[in-house]
Amino acid sequence: MLIEHKQYFYPLRLTLDGAALIIVFFLCSLITCTLFPGAMPPLAPGNRILHLPAYGNYFLSLLTLAVIVPLLLLYQAYLREKTYLQKLGERAQQAFYISCITGMCMLLLSIFSPQPQLQLLFILLWIPITSCLLIVETLLVVAVVRQRYRRGDVVYYVLMYGTNDAGKAAAQLFDAHPEWGIQVIGFLTADPGAVGGTCAGHPVLGKDDEFSTVVDSSIVDCVLWSGDVYDSTLFESLAHRCNIRGIDFIYTSSMLNEKFAEIMTEQLGDQRLLIHKSVYHHPAKLFIKRFMDVVLASLLIVIATPLWIIVPIIIRLDSPGPALFRQERVGRHGRRFIMYKFRSMVQHAEQLLPQVQSLNEMDGPVFKITDDPRFTRLGKFLRKTSIDELPQLFNVLKGEMSLVGPRPPLYSEVLRYSPWQRKRLSVTPGITCLWQVSGRNKIKFDEWMQLDLQYINNWSLLLDVKILLKTILAVLSQKGAQ
Predict the structure, then answer these.
(1) How far, in Å, CA of 114 to CA of 42, rounded?
(2) Residues whose CB falls within 8 Å of the CB of residue 367, separated by 6 or more in sequence, listed in order
(3) How is residue 427 annotated by DSSP?
(4) Comparing C-alpha atoms, which of 227, 215, 224 is closest to residue 189?
(5) CATH superfamily, domain at 156-259
(6) Cα Rg for the chain, rounded, in angstroms?
(7) For residue range 465-480, what is the model confidence (pLDDT) as tens digits?
(8) Bridge-partner residues for 248, per DSSP?
(9) Do 28 and 58 meet the contact criterion of CB atoms below 8 Å apart?
(10) What are phi and psi of 419, to 5 degrees?
């Protein structure tokens, strides 16, 4: 619905944006050349008219930045908009930010200009003029769109099926946002007694078996199903009748009584898949997260070069056994991998677990002791300073782990998880997480799981940065390291 409206107006918006930016470019160039004629190359004898191409070399380097960069930023902004009837204040703020970002890019380029003072004046003129022109352009587009709304050209007429709470909520949402251009014409219902009345301020036009009569006598662009999820026969029948008439058929996620993070469609061969994603993180942001993981992990590996040599030697001198400890852990959606650590316990410590099981200080399926008797003398120091975790940087490079994410559990622990706790396996595990910087052993197991779900549901790149900074402070203070 709304995305089609946006896509319809994309060519108009981007064309107007491009034209406005080009006009501003030449206008600012003209003003700059007029104010600083002495700094310009001499004009041909007898030429009394300012000839801009003569000064083109000073400004052509800015042309790409002054047009292409803001167009890309505007396009990205349009992708996030629900409607083109954007509030003037929001558009003004958006235009100013985009102008400032582009202006800073041009300012960096001006450092290499033979006439930096000219380009500086150009930039100081370009930012406010661009902002004003983009705002004026928005007012023109909004006027055009409103006119088309009034004529009914881009209004989307919706017939609701189902007078339950979900149907009422959807109708009230559309009524609260007239700028979306979605107009509810009425309801169909399975309740004969409701016909002729109203629901959420709209008429109940008939029963479900009167679909053809209602549609044939009204303008209907789509039917929105909010009926009973278990009434699959009627659901399929209504979808079929919509398809025959060329009417869009829509249903809300509330039909499933679950709130999914994202619903996507994908075409594979001749199959159209409808994907309900319980956890959705934007692929571009995940790419940046992975890029940060690789860069930071590589950098830390290089910085820690002396430790790769010294620590293994001291571990072997302190107690018999290998310097590196390998243990199978569970990653994203149950994938198993070998996690690396510097050995901080005596050799075959896992076989000694039954002897110290009664000392466990954590509830739930995990096992942790403040002063585990299996620690070696050096192991206590490695654990307290978190140096034992350094080899997991190689797990990060392999893609099995991330710098930030829920800690990877043992398979035996996962077997004892409640269904809701398994959601922590929906993302790539990490070296550090909210639990790591929130007291570790001082919090209960369910609280730990809740912190992981809080991270998953509210994940952002900024949150990762905050956790990394808190981790550095926690390591330096040795707070909560057990």
Answers:
(1) 16
(2) 353, 357, 360
(3) S
(4) 227
(5) NAD(P)-binding Rossmann-like Domain (3.40.50.720)
(6) 32
(7) 999 999 888 887 765 4
(8) 222
(9) no
(10) -55, -40
